[in-house]
Amino acid sequence: xxxxxxxxxxxxxxxxxxxxxxxxxxxxxxxxxxxxxxxxxxxxxxxxxxxxxxxxxxxxxxxxxxxxxxxxxxxxxxxxxxxxxxxxxxxxxxxxxxxxxxxxxxxxxxxxxxxxxxxxxxxxxxxxxxxxxxxxxxxxxxxxxxxxxxxxxxxxxxxxxxxxxxxxxxxxxxxxxxxxxxxxxxxxxxxxxxxxxxxxxxxxxxxxxxxxxxxxxxxxxxxxxxxxxxxxxxxxxxxxxxxxxxxxxxxxxxxxxxxxxxxxxxxxxxxxxxxxxxxxxxxxxxxxxxxxxxxxxxxxxxxxxxxxxxxxxxxxxxxxxxxxxxxxxxxxxxxxxxxxxxxxxxxxxxxxxxxxxxxxxxxxxxxxxxxxxxxxx
Amino acid sequence: xxxxxxxxxxxxxxxxxxxxxxxxxxxxxxxxxxxxxxxxxxxxxxxxxxxxxxxxxxxxxxxxxxxxxxxxxxxxxxxxxxxxxxxxxxxxxxxxxxxxxxxxxxxxxxxxxxxxxxxxxxxxxxxxxxxxxxxxxxxxxxxxxxxxxxxxxxxxxxxxxxxxxxxxxxxxxxxxxxxxxxxxxxxxxxxxxxxxxxxxxxxxxxxxxxxxxxxxxxxxxxxxxxxxxxxxxxxxxxxxxxxxxxxxxxxxxxxxxxxxxxxxxxxxxxxxxxxxxxxxxxxxxxxxxxxxxxxxxxxxxxxxxxxxxxxxxxxxxxxxxxxxxxxxxxxxxxxxxxxxxxxxxxxxxxxxxxxxxxxxxxxxxxxxxxxxxxxxxxxxxxxxxxxxxxxxxxxxxxxxxxxxxxxxxxxxxxxxxxxxxxxxxxx
Amino acid sequence: xxxxxxxxxxxxxxxxxxxxxxxxxxxxxxxxxxxxxxxxxxxxxxxxxxxxxxxxxxxxxxxxxxxxxxxxxxxxxxxxxxxxxxxxxxxxxxxxxxxxxxxxxxxxxxxxxxxxxxxxxxxxxxxxxxxxxxxxxxxxxxxxxxxxxxxxxxxxxxxxxxxxxxxxxxxxxxxxxxxxxxxxxxxxxxxxxxxxxxxxxxxxxxxxxxxxxxxxxxxxxxxxxxxxxxxxxxxxxxxxxxxxxxxxxxxxxxxxxxxxxxxxxxxxxxxxxxxxxxxxxxxxxxxxxxxxxxxxxxxxxxxxxxxxxxxxxxxxxxxxxxxxxxxxxxxxxxxxxxxxxxxxxxxxxxxxxxxxxxxxxxxxxxxxxxxxxxxxxxxxxxxxxxxxxxxxxxxxxxxxxxxxxxxxxxxxxxxxxxxxxxxxxxxxxxxxxxxxxxxxxxxxxxxxxxxxxxxxxxxxxxxxxxxxxxxxxxxxxxxxxxxxxxxxxxxxxxxxxxxxxxxxxxxxxxxxxxxxxxxxxxxxxxxxx
Lengths: 377, 427, 529
Prior knowledge:
The complex is a heterotrimer of chains A (about 375), B (about 425) and C (about 525). By secondary structure, chain A is mainly alpha-helical. Chain A has one domain (about 55-205, about 225-375). Chain A has helices at about 1-15, 20-40, 50-70, 80-100, 115-120, 135-160, 165-180, 210-235, 235-245, 250-255, 260-285, 295-305, 310-330, 335-350, 355-375; strands at about 195, 200, 205, 285. In chain A, a hairpin with a 2-residue loop joins strand 2 (about 200) and strand 3. Residues about 1-25 of chain B have low confidence and may be disordered. In chain B, the strands form four sheets. In chain B, strands 7-6-8-9-10-14-15 form a seven-stranded mixed β-sheet, with helices on both faces. In chain B, strands 2-1-3-4-5 form a five-stranded parallel β-sheet, sandwiched between helices. A four-stranded antiparallel β-sheet of chain B has the order 11-12-13-16, with helices on one face. Chain C folds into three domains: about 1-115, no CATH class; about 140-210, no CATH class; about 235-360 and about 380-529, ABC transporter involved in vitamin B12 uptake, BtuC, CATH 1.10.3470. In chain C, the strands form two sheets. Chain C has a four-stranded antiparallel β-sheet with strand order 3-2-1-4. Mean pLDDT of chain C is about 85; it is low at about 1-20. Chains B and C meet through helix 2, strand 7, helix 7 and helix 8 of B and helix 5, helix 10, helix 11, helix 14 and helix 15 of C. Chain A: It comes from Marinomonas profundimaris.
């Protein structure tokens, strides 16, 4: 009972973070964008396009971390295959961008992407049809990960595959997709993937304004998803989800169809990952099977662990922090950055079991006790 | 009062920030974009060291244009999108004047849009599938016609090979090379049933079935050879399996395009003696330039056993040419250097002169070597003169009519000689 | 090989004076000749001499034949204990004054090597050793020219050894079958005897003959081919089964350590692959320390790798995993960090390049059962080794007190603790054992694949699949799963290709786990929950 109370109060505290988070996120984003667009390049406060693109990428990762946290932190399903949903969303966007190149590819073929021309393909495979329409491609970016998650979740949760078995199965899923997308016969460009994009909805992808716009859209969507997820998780449904995390069999005996809750939460999470992937691709300029690699999916889990699972804000902070550290480390000490990263993972798991948010909570609790004690003294 | 000091502090710090880049511009910056971790580290760290050695060497000679060179190394960690990001970092944050980097095609394709957008300059030192020519990239490795086609010619003419196994890792370089070779072999009258094509995933380690298939394919009477575009880590288990299943070079020679001295240094080559490789460079070629280069490399790495290889020579030639072009242009400005690059001549390490052509590819000699028991190659055949690198293959239907010419008046990487149009340019 | 050449040199001493003088002008020609003009000269040398020329041909075949620049005299290069020596190939007389600068190599290429092998075989037809004679005959089957047939016909009646005689008979039958001027009945009789043989050259000959002008010959050849194909298919099946078992044994070795740490302790050890890698690097270091005893190095490397990886495992358990007790999913994160550190550590110490691990001579080559079926020795040994490790592990867990404690802790930790089992100690030992076995797997894998920083990464996912498919916490399940997956992959591969086979196997595992959520052999009882 006390545990339940704790979760209720936890839910409230994390809800408390929503408004400041949204304000800070959007504030920083808008300021950075303005600094990029309106300040001269030699100004001290100028934010370079490099930084904007980098931040945009981080935000996509943050969204992905949110997706992982929703099912792992709140429902206890450790997915080691979220990279698959992310990459599928990315591929849908990539296919759209590929079709937008039109006859400006190196071979000047109006219909076929370059890699098909040089592998001597004669016509567009069926799954490329319709991808030249933005709305259709975006629908696919959401639908394909969603449907895959539904089928996988429906099979797995109904037959009560849990714990490490489920984790390893999600890993198998993304690994199988990795191998499949590597195959050139699949028609997704093999190892090279999709690249050399020109424009999105008629806007030049290389222009600063497009980059800033993409960055802004990512930030806004992240804020929206954050708020919506917060609402869902603090609703009645969210309580059931937490109950499932803490004791699935008890929840089932009480009468909840736990598998349905899990399936839908899994689908919701996969859709978010798909959206993150779709936003990621135009900003980094390439999508290839490497995104499916199981190591990537493990890294996502680590972002969440570092930030603190079970709190949405923790997932976001973790993703931003780990990726920033990675960028810095690879530049400062290219030969030894893996030591630093590895050590960081070990230390965080050992000393910060609840991640940075847990640390924050501990510090605050300490301060509270100190403050509570003072009047007594 | 307080506000005044604050503003002045801000202005001051702003001024220092602005002043910093101009201070740093005293050196010429050379970006190095090679993976130092992840799967490609095995090949790419060597090239990073080569560039660093060349920079050192140039600085000992007094630098360029009166300035010292400064190498800036980043690690794209074998992660392809990271190549684009790190490329952008080098060009916008570090403001490098030139980049030496990339190994895999996908990493080059990833960084390419960034180079074209920011008008950077990159030297790409690895053999590749061709079908590309960018204003901002110089390709110092071999195109398919500088490696694959001479090798197949050698197999047919000198060894009397009639059946071919085209074995490769499933990615774009083997796919394209094999497409070109298939068309070429068929044009030479080899029947379709005498060509076996096989693709395996990256890092494939269990070669039992495939090697046994090759053995079967090769035992049907006609002289058979394997043309291998197997990449990286997969080679060692492949060769080990060949040795163990008793396929000797006299029965079924394997000619490889991705196996050089460095790959062999991780392998006991006794069972492999006689298998072949086609490159533009072998460490065993005896010329004064090569001897000096090998000596310098061993001294630089402080390892008397370190070997040299073809991509290192490509890096060497690229660096020399770039240094000459900068001197000639009198500036590191990309457009000026790009024009000055065309027509640059540098002695090859294997003798003769390499020339940078109008299509940003080199003219180089092609050598075929047999593996020796000491992990080196012995040259058994070489082209009479140099072969000009062909950006667009004549044996692919899509690129038959395309040429690349970066001099006026065409100034285009893919110019269709039939329709007289230039497509797919980003600059 | 050098030793062998020397011996030959010594044996041929008496006839040296005669031979060498008659060969001298030819040898001088050889030195001057271009590589493409060397075959006719070698032909003359072969005709002009007998068995005594073997050392010359052998040295040339090995690429060890040099000539002295000043005198154009040929010498062989020999390596004895790392020192290069030049000796006369016929007499074995050393030229101690010669250095690398005084001599030049006589180059050989594949054409020449092929010619030399045949020439050596022709000369060896009269060797005193019957197995040498037999392999010489078999070597010549693919190049049956008139000269060879003449020699064979001359030798056949006098041959006393049954096996050699059989091989010679086969060669002569092949010759008879292909001679169009001979009577049809003779040829058909020859073809019928060929039907018993599995040699490739026989099959190629029959394939040619099945397009013969004479319909009777055609028919006979086709019938013979059918008979051969039937037998060959049976052996091909055995071959494929062996491939599958071999892949299975690799999977078993890679995953069995994980079956302990993951299955028994519930630790998701992402650094398991790096434990394998450490074992492989230990093999490398051991070979570096004892370069002259490569054949025995494996026996040193196995315990050394067990200790290195095992101690590293104990270290990891004491420093990290101990603190994460009861939080299996978090061990995944920490050990992932450890795996990054270990990879980079190896990269820093040994460079990112692959390291060369030599195969002991007793492990290289293959066991040729017949011309269509030969099993590679290294894989055969690894298969046996994997089973041995498995049995040893089962014995440890079932028969020793450590095993009893391990099982007790894995079934009910608190109860075991209450009974006085030192769970801390047991945990460390279990993790050390699992890691140590991974190290042993590394020794085996160093014989098959690259020894580099990425070695572990290549096996970690497969290992997890095997353990989960077999059922966590069940060693027998791991064994069955490893061999099932190995054999399934190898039987799929010929029809689907390597990539699709791997995908299909993964999809199969995913679907199988839906059907049986706890793997092939689920743990039973309350401990499973």
